[in-house]
Each structure stands twice: as C-alpha cells, then as structure tokens.
C-alpha cells in the first residue's frame, strides 16, 4: 500500500470515529428523562426508608412495653 492509501485510511478512520462519537452523545431529552427518573427513584426510596424506620421504632417501643409488662 502506498502512503496515499495509508493517509486516506487514517483520515477516514478519524472522521468516522468523530462522527460515531457525536452520534453517541446523550441528547438533552434523554438526559432530562434520566434525571427525572433518578430523582423519582431517590424520593420513593427516601419515603420507603421513612416508612420502614417509623415501623421499626414503633415495633421497638411495643417490644419495650411487652418486656416491662412481663417483668412485673
């Protein structure tokens, strides 16, 4: 292969690589949907944690009351 063929192939590879990289970038709509879904998951996880935590405290308090009653 001649130098010209190597240079042409290298240039074509660089141009196609740049083109593919630009196509693979995230679109603003995709990023917006991803951020919204991430925030929704965070909020639902936080809510579920608070529900779990309050139930745990309630059960712990009931267990303490049962221990006091049986100890009499």
What are the defining features of this structure?
single chain, 72 residues, mainly alpha, 92% helix, rod-shaped
Polypeptide structure, described:
The protein contains 2 helices and no strands. The protein has 72 residues and is mostly helical. The N and C termini lie far apart (97 Å).
Structural category: mainly alpha
The description of the largest β-sheet is: none
* Shape type: rod-shaped
Spans of at least 5 consecutive residues whose pLDDT stays below 50 are: none
Q: What order do the SSEs take from the amino end to the carboxyl end, as H and E? A: HH
The overall pLDDT average reads 86
Strand content: under 5%
The helicity comes to over 70%
Brief characterization of the structure:
This protein is mainly α. The protein has two helices and no strands.
Q: Which helices and strands appear, and what pairs or packs with what?
A:
Blueprint: H1 3-24, H2 28-71
């Amino acid at each position: 292969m001649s130098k010209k063929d190597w240079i042409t192939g290298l240039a074509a590879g660089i141009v196609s690589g740049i083109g593919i990289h630009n196509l693979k970038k995230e679109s603003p709509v995709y990023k917006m949907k991803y951020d919204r879904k991430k925030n929704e998951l965070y909020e639902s996880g936080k809510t579920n944690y608070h529900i779990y935590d309050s139930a745990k405290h309630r059960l712990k308090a009931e267990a303490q009351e049962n221990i006091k009653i049986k100890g009499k």
